[in-house]
Amino acid sequence: MNKVFIAVGHGGRDPGALANNLREADCNLVMALAMEQVLLQHGLEVKLSRRTDCNNPVGEEIAACQQFAPELAVVIHNNAGGGRGFEVFHPVDAYMEESIALALLMEQEIRLLGQRSRGLKQNNRLRWMRKCTCPTVLCEGFFLDSDDYLLAQTEEQQATFGKAYAKAVLRWFEERK
Ligand SMILES: [Zn+2]
């Protein structure tokens, strides 16, 4: 069975970005649960790093992922700091090519929501990218502190991001059959 690990960024004492009455930790969880729902409907095995607003340190996320040993890991974050658009990070290692393939599919699906893309970014400084032991992408769906938030201010809108990530994952597995 195809296995996917979803790391749900921040949580508990660490809310992540805060702007426009949105908490990044909450947005990340809504997206992850919507993504999980679609993947489960398609018979995939899914594990989330957290399912509630609890502490979720990156080191524990990565350890849980390695124990689960999935074919794919998706790390869900959202952005702040002044900017617009989706961006997606991938590692530069043995998993680079397969990670880029997923990142491109994610970008395509996110554009269909009307969200622009800042593109794919390679990054080996992020702990997730250094330590991953399977193809991995880290998604930054939207900026909480720019006009972007109009695309993701309700839970329903946030769920559309999660569903788009799920479609990309399903296409990635489909291409590898
Ligand atoms: Zn974050």
Walk me through this protein's architecture.
The protein has 177 residues and is α/β, with parallel strands linked by helices. The chain has one domain (3-175): Aminopeptidase. It has five helices and eight strands. Strands 4-1-5-8-6-7 form a six-stranded mixed beta sheet, sandwiched between helices. Strands 2-3 form a two-stranded antiparallel sheet. The chain is globular. Bound molecules: zinc ion (ZN). Residues 9-10, 16, 24, 77 line the site of zinc ion (ZN). The site of zinc ion has 5 residues, from loops.
- Supply the CATH architecture: 3-Layer(aba) Sandwich
Tally of alpha and pi helices: 5
Distance between the termini: 12 Å
How large is the radius of gyration?
14 Å
Task: State mean pLDDT (0 to 100 scale).
Answer: 97
Most strands sheet:
6 strands, mixed
How many beta-strand segments?
Answer: 8
Structural class comes to alpha/beta
What is the CATH topology classification name?
Aminopeptidase
Name a few traits of the molecule.
177 residues; alpha/beta; Aminopeptidase; six-stranded mixed sheet; 23% strand; binds zinc ion
How are the elements arranged and paired?
Blueprint lengths: L2 E6 L9 E2 L2 E2 H18 L3 E4 L9 H11 L3 E8 L6 E5 L5 H16 L5 E6 L4 H5 L4 E8 L11 H21 L2
Parallel strand pairs: 1-4, 1-5, 5-8, 6-7
Antiparallel strand pairs: 2-3, 6-8
Helix pairs in contact: 1-5, 3-5
The protein binds zinc ion.
Zinc ion binds next to loops.
